[in-house]
Specification:
It contains seven helices and no strands. With 141 residues, the protein is mainly alpha-helical.
Length: 141
């Protein structure tokens, strides 16, 4: 086999491996949690409304869309909301700022005071979010 053909095949193989690696890394990553948009009526408030109205399937579907949680964890969270409790803690950490009004309010206060880094640190201390996730959350406050 000519050397040019061997090189071309090797280049194609490397490109396919890189593509496979990139797709595999992003496939299992949950979506970022975002602050609810009050104007749209979405966010955790809508999940809570659906759960308490007995629309469990819709609440689970919406929670999974917002968070990327597995089906079982989303169902358990909706069941906890229907029972009148708060959202359960995220795995590996305390409940996220989406469910904790005090953390959200304090982070918003820090952002208004020009202390965005402190707000990100506060969010990370109360969640198991990565630095990028916490920063995106704070940027949306």
């Amino acid at each position: 086999m000519p050397e040019a053909v061997q090189f071309a095949l090797l280049a194609v193989l490397v490109a396919l491996l890189l593509l496979w690696f990139v797709l595999r890394r992003s496939a299992g990553r949950p979506r970022d949690l975002v602050a609810p948009d009050p104007a749209a009526g979405g966010g955790q408030g809508e999940v809570l409304r659906l759960a308490r109205a007995g629309h469990t399937v819709e609440a689970v579907r919406l929670l999974r869309q917002q968070t990327g949680l597995p089906l079982l964890e989303a169902k358990q969270a909706v069941d906890a909301l229907r029972a009148g409790g708060p959202l359960p803690a995220r795995p590996g950490g305390l409940s996220g700022p989406v469910g904790d009004d005090e953390v959200r309010a304090e982070a918003a206060r820090l952002v208004r005071a020009g202390k965005k880094i402190h707000a990100v640190k506060l969010v990370r201390e109360h969640t198991n979010w990565s630095l990028a996730e916490a920063k995106r959350y704070v940027d949306r406050l």
